[in-house]
């Protein structure tokens, strides 16, 4: 009887251990094949019956809030102790795990000349009263050829871009209920083709892909730990536009089956390039945090098929004290039509470096981990919350994670640079 149990036990331990280590360099992970996309017209999404019921729900329902708060507090307490102990020791220079695949100009500290460009349009897009459900709002947006789309936990709003010869779009400064005109839809309405009975949607992130001329969006279903995706059929969003919708289980890596719940994904951050749609995020587990990167075959994605390659880009193990890799990976946007690689970017757990991970593709167009590079920066601290004119609460600065990451080529100099930003304390 023991001879039958021990191999099974060893297998379980190996699977459990694999969830706690990064994807090795040169490795292509086993792909995950999702369900075929669901095609829906925008006009069919508005006022979806299920969405109308869900809009009345609180943002964090009692079923999920205690779990999220518990996991986030567990991580915060561990990482504070880790950084305190690390600061007490002399730090050794970090070595690169592979050759940098970014051009030298992409990691340079280049200073720009000239004065700061003045803001032209400045307007209120969405407020809490338009759809009083998502708090905090977690806003972001993207710009296309003729439209600007704002995404928040309250919903999506599509604005028409003013022509350069037209007057700028402006709304009153300070506290005001005057919003710029636009086509609004709640997150629950928008993702209604994917909703389950107890779904609740949040943490959206939207990008406009200049190469395919499509709008791409990611969000999560808090209650069911599902990643939601949508891609438009063109570069203009109207009531007659169509979208392809996908959903997949966020817990793609092996985890301890004895844990009280599977790992929960948080704040998926979206990028897109010639080869792939790339999504990075933090996956909170019961006794570990895994920093994940999902690489989605772009060609198939645009044509109704979902093929995902999951990469482990970092880990925090509360039991062993192991900490490595990048915190909150960002899928990097890159509109270079000649780009041959995909990238993730994040910060080091020591808060003294920017980490980039490059992925290359084999003859079958399968991604493999090419190199991870640490770019040293001056040590920084967590930011403090900032006051906001017209608001009764401070802006939540969250932590030092990166906010988006994009690669652009300067058309005048030909230099390629990685652009990102984050909030820090100095």
Which structural class should the secondary elements be placed in? mainly beta
Provide mean pLDDT, rounded. 83
**How many separate helices?**
6
Q: Span between N and C termini?
A: 61 Å
Q: How is the biggest beta sheet arranged?
A: 9 strands, antiparallel
Low-confidence runs (pLDDT<50, min 5 residues)?
1-20, 52-62, 90-109
Q: What are the secondary-structure elements, in order, as H or E?
A: HEEHHHEEEEHEEEEEEEHEEEEEEEE
User: Approximately what portion of the residues adopt beta-strand conformation?
Assistant: 25-35%
Helix content: 10-25%
Shape: globular
The counted number of beta strands is: 21
Provide a descriptive summary of the structure in words.
The protein has 426 residues and is mainly beta. Helices cover 14% and strands 35% of the residues. The chain contains 6 helices and 21 strands. The strands form 4 sheets. Strands 1, 11, 12, 13, 14, 15, 17, 18 and 19 form a 9-stranded antiparallel sheet that branches. Strands 2-10-9-8-7 form a 5-stranded antiparallel sheet. Strand 8 and strand 9 form a beta hairpin. The termini are far apart. 37% of the residues are buried.
């Amino acid at each position: 009887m023991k001879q039958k149990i021990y191999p099974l036990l060893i297998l379980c331990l190996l699977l459990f251990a694999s969830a706690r280590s990064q994807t090795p360099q040169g490795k292509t992970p086993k792909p995950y094949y999702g369900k075929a996309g669901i095609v829906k017209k925008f006009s069919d999404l508005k006022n979806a019956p299920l969405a109308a019921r869900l809009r009345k729900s609180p943002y964090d329902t009692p079923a999920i809030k205690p779990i999220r708060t518990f996991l986030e507090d567990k991580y915060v307490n561990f990482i504070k102790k880790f950084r305190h102990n690390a600061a007490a020791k002399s730090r050794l220079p970090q070595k690169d795990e592979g050759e940098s695949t970014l051009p030298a100009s992409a990691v340079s500290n280049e200073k720009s000349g000239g004065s700061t460009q003045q803001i032209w349009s400045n307007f209120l897009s969405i407020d809490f009263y338009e759809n009083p459900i998502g708090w905090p709002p977690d806003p972001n947006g993207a710009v296309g050829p003729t439209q600007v789309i704002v995404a928040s936990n309250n919903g999506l709003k599509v604005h028409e871009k003013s022509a350069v010869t037209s007057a700028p779009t402006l709304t009153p400064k300070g506290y005001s209920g005057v919003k710029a005109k636009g086509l609004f839809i709640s997150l629950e309405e928008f993702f209604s083709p994917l909703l389950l009975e107890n779904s609740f949607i949040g943490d959206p992130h939207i990008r406009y892909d200049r190469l395919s001329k499509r709008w791409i969006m990611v969000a999560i279903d808090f209650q069911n730990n599902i990643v939601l995706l949508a891609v438009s059929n063109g570069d203009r969003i109207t009531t007659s536009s169509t979208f392809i919708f996908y959903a997949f289980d966020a817990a793609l890596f092996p985890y301890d089956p004895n844990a009280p719940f599977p790992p929960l994904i948080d704040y998926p951050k979206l990028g897109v390039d010639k080869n792939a749609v790339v999504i990075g995020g933090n996956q909170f587990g019961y006794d570990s945090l895994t920093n994940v990167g999902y690489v989605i075959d772009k060609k198939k994605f645009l044509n109704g098929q979902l093929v995902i390659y999951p990469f482990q880009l970092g880990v925090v193990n509360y039991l062993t004290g192991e900490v490595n890799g990048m915190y909150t990976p960002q899928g990097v946007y890159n509109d270079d039509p000649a780009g041959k690689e995909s990238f993730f970017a994040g910060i080091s757990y020591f808060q003294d470096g920017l980490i980039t991970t490059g992925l290359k593709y084999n003859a079958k167009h399968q991604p493999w981990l090419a190199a991870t590079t640490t770019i040293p920066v001056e040590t920084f601290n967590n930011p403090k919350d900032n006051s906001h004119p017209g608001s009764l609460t401070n802006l939540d600065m969250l932590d030092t994670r990166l906010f988006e990451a994009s690669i652009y080529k300067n058309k005048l100099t030909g230099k390629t640079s990685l652009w990102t930003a984050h909030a820090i304390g100095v």
